[in-house]
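During the second half of the funding period, the structural biology subgroup turned its attention to how the target accommodates small molecules. The most pressing case was iron/sulfur cluster, which had performed well in the primary screen but for which no bound structure existed. We therefore specified the complex as follows and requested a full 3D prediction, including the ligand pose.
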Amino acid sequence: MSQVPTMIDFRRNTQQVPSRMPLAVQKATSKFLGNRAAVVDAFGNEQWQVLRQAGHDIRLHAITHIEHYLEMAEHAVTRAGGHVHWARDAAEARRILLDIASRHRVKLAVKGKSMATEEIGLNPALEEAGIRVLETDLGEYIVQLKGVGPAHIVVPAFHLSKEEIANLFHEKLGVDAPAEAEKLTQIARMKLREEFLSADLGISGGNFLVADTGTVVTVTNEGNGRMCTTVPPVHVAVVGIDKVVPDWESLTVLLKLLARSATGQKLSCYTQFISGPPRSPAETGPAEMHLILLDNGRSRILKTPECRETLLCIRCGACLNICPVYNHVGGYAYGYPISGPTGVLFASQILGPTVAGALPFASTLCGACNEICPVKIPITRILLHLRRRVVEGDESEQAAAPVYLRVGAWAGAAALGSTGLYRMGSELLKRLQAPFVRGGWMARLPAPLNRWTMSRPFPAFAADFRRWWRSRTTAGGKRGTSEPGA
Ligand code: SF4
């Protein structure tokens, strides 16, 4: 359901998060983390670390030889009778898909869960062209009925209670729905089955693209993905170019990492391999198969050495589940269909600092995401680089941080680099802060310095921090005082 965002105000978005969201999110994420911990434990932690390193190396090799593997995949898909399209950006991907839909006079398209199609804002474009588009993953179906996008990259409607879903079904589908998971699933399944049979087009994403056979791999826990890619007469897969992997051996490693990290399973219920349309009348499936290879900023990410490991992501969602920020605000505050730490990396780089400059700051930099990531992406290191880019700009992007922040960062760096300036600055701060200090704390600061004090007091600056620090660390000093301004 997502539109491509034009401006993301993370802070404002967090203020609109419903008060029950953190509890709902934490209930779900703690379950995922518990399941993950159990399967990793059963696998053996030492072995797991070996597998993570292998996953990292495979993905890094794939993206640093991306042209070679994409060409290999293109040849294999074409050889198998499929059609390959290259989309430089979201607009081009939408246009290609709309062309295919219009050639086949599509009235109804069914979709499996796909972050790439969310990223390009496909659903609104199809609807604008008069094509009804139906999400068929249960979670996506629910959020589509609600008129919103996914709140999590693996479990899009996990923040909604059974009661909320039952009410939604009653309101939108006109059915009496009891608040029971099994009954609600049955209702959705009945509704969707009718639609699968009358759909003219099936759309999917792809978790991986195996280069040597041109195979699109989808990993799901519901049968809907299989229905989307086999029942309608035409199938289009929209796959980010970063999803390419060299061969089936690499795939085996990544599938082991993905299922365990995403849902705590050894393997997802359905792992589907699509290598072109049927090659003989004995085979069934859509007569036409298209693969749209989506760049949309990925080549740019690849060109930046500090950031290119972003593209290793296998979208398992583990970094969302462990992230303290995500756990407090949920997915919608990020203003982008891919949320949490990985969403921050992608949105910041795909949309650029003018649109998404607030996102790299939506992190405590605690590093839990680095530790849990199955392909060892150094998320916080990339975040720091992106923060610097927002403040300083670089050869391709203008600085997007407000002037006061840039001047503040510059002044802070200058003061910390010179003893004389530091002393002068300390003295100046002491005088400037005096009207706001009560008992060593500042309860309220004027805008634009008030972000911190909106939710908690700020400790007053010490007149001479170095003397204060020495007094704490010498034998006679009082350790443990929490008031540097005292
Ligand atoms: S960054 Fe790592 S942990 Fe997060 S979704 Fe991607 S692969 Fe999973």
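Two results from this model are relevant to the next phase. Residues 21-43 form the longest helix (23 residues). Residues 261, 313-319, 341-342, 372-375, 377, 379 surround iron/sulfur cluster (CB under 6 Å).
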